[in-house]
Amino acid sequence: MVDDDPSVLAMVTEILQFEGYNIQTATNGAEALAKVDQALPALVLLDMRMPVLSGWDFARSLKERDIHLPILVMTAAHDAYKWAQEIGASGFVAKPFHLPDLLDAVEAILTGEGGTTQND
Amino acid sequence: MTLDQLSQYITWGLYLIIFAVVVVRAVRDPMRANFDIALLFGLPGMLILISLLTQVGIVSAGHVTSAISGSLLLGMGYMLVRLVHDFTNIPAWILRVSELVLAALVVGAFTLDSSTGLLILAEVIYLLVLLLFVSLAFIVASRRAGGVTGRRMAAIAVGNISLFVLFLIISLSVIIPDLGKDLQAITELIGLASAVAYFLGFATPAVVKRAWQEPELRLFLQRAATLPRLPETKSIIAEIQYGAAESVGAPNASVGLWDEASNQLIYQDPQGQKLEIPVDPESATGSAFVSQTPVYIREIKPSHHSYERATSVNIATILAAPITAGQKRLGILAVYADRPSIFADEDLELVKLLANQAAVVLENRILIDEGVRMRVQEQSTRLKEDFLSAAAHDLRTPLTILVGQVELMERRALRSPDAPLDIVSVQRLKKESYRLKTLVLELLDAERVEQGKLMSVRSEVDLVEVAQEACERHTGEHHLCSVQAEGAVIGMYDPVRMQQLVENLVQNAVKYSPDGGTIEIKLWSEHKENANGPRNEGGQSWNHLTVTDHGIGIPTEDLLSVFERFHRGTNVDDRKFVGMGLGLYICKTIVEQHGGVISVESKRRNNTSNGRSESTGNGSSDTESTGVETIFHVILPGIPVPALSGESVTASRQA
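^ Those are the sequences you sent over. The predicted structure of the assembly is below.
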């Protein structure tokens, strides 16, 4: 889970842990890249507007390293769908989201029904 | 027919044509100058008639005939002086003396022997003196007047000079009889020249008029082309007025712009003051405006509402033409002269053309102004759109947490109803509610700033306390905020707004130093004695607050605009830094409404020393000694130093 807002990060972590997922956090793209290098996750939940390394830069860096990971774009922007397309993400969740929508989107990607999109 | 004869007939023909033209004009426009001109050319007309009749033998050459011819010639000289009197101020005695001498000479011509050398000499001197005088008068007048009028005057001056030379040769040939025969051809040519010059001056053909109008018009057009770009309508009006006066050769001109709502003509006087004058159809300008046709008034009536009355410009006549673009009435152009012109119709035509040009200039100006207004509107629309997008993002983040957190708590409570309340979740909810509150208030504040309703009641506020509270809120994992002050820094402020000011500045510092670092707040008071006033007036106290960060900095080109509404730095990546561009705008408004000033500097620091004299007991400053340093500096009025007597001021200073 990558988000520059610590409160969002903490809240989403809590939700996913409560649902039994194992989760690692990062506050920007650069931190996230470092974590990906250590261990490949099954899914990246990605905010787009972040300092140091944005969501776009993070996605590009993954491609440059030839790492293919499912990404769920999670952003507060009304053009979340557009941004998800831009980086070739597997899906998106627009903030503010409802908890079931987030969990459905995560589950859909992890169980191979990728491409699911969610909107509020 | 010899060449000399041909030339003579052409000369006669031209004089007769001029006579016909000026008679028609005198009948159509019976003003004094027109009558005088008709009379003037009646004299050569009669001379020509007598010559013709003599040639064909109906009238025999003799004493009476030559006396009549001589008198007619003398009369021409006198009529030219009268004409000069019609359009310039010449002393009345000149006219009287020339009348007396004329009478004496005419009587002499009929009573004395025509071959009396003395009489002929007197006649010739009289004519030469008068012709010299009128030649000079027309030259002076032509230089003063502009356009067609000026050129017509010049042509008449050439005619006068030709006549002068002609009579000079004739007078010489009286003294040296052989000379007359030798110069016969030349005198005929000079006679023809005078006829052509008078023809151009008094019976100007339309083609020539247009050609003569062109230089002034072109000059005015060249000037007019650049006018709409002038920064102010005021300067455009001044330029049009100047150009019109110059073109017509008049001392003064005015432009009145029509205000439809009040039906007034708005002028600006020579000092640039605004003058509002009701449209009065009785006045020259008013009637030209109402009738939408050019108007020439020879004598202004004192009762009229007019610009010239209001400014008491010394004038006698007005030429006024409406400034109208298509169907749109814009105003009026008036040109003033201190004497009626003998060629007023020419001047009026020129004023009309100038007014048309002025309409184009003013209409262009209106279009340019509209264009600017449109651009400003577009820009403000774009700013609002950017703002809405930023606002949406800023509001969605805390909202996301509130919604997600509450739903998580509900889910948890449903699964394990007996589990205790999770305090961390509640605290997170509280924090995000506050964040949302701050954002919503910022939006509302921006709205209040727009409406000028930001401030409420003031009370004593210690800025050091406010700064410490803000610092505590923002000291965390990445940022270390410190406050330096040597005691309380107190002023009468709106407490809520002071908190908001310091909070915004610290938030700004945190936001734009994403890699973390120190944020330093320094506070101090400065007491200034009244340097100019008497000592016992006390002095002003100023409170200073600086907030320094070591983040991404502000590019030089942005330093002036950071306090503008919706401004985002050119080095700020919208995708990395969320914001509405309202924080610093609100800061500036708060500071200014407290009578203070806010400024910012952003500079690259030396890595050897920290370069600022008033720094710093802060141990961490050494690690922050590289990179960009951004300092916001707020100066607010403090508590005024109470009035003291001169002695006690000295005492307190020594203490």
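The radius of gyration of chain B is 44 Å. Chain B touches chain A at residues 389, 392-393, 396-405, 407-408, 411-412, 425, 428, 431-432, 514-515, 573-578 (CB under 8 Å).

Shout if you want it in another format.
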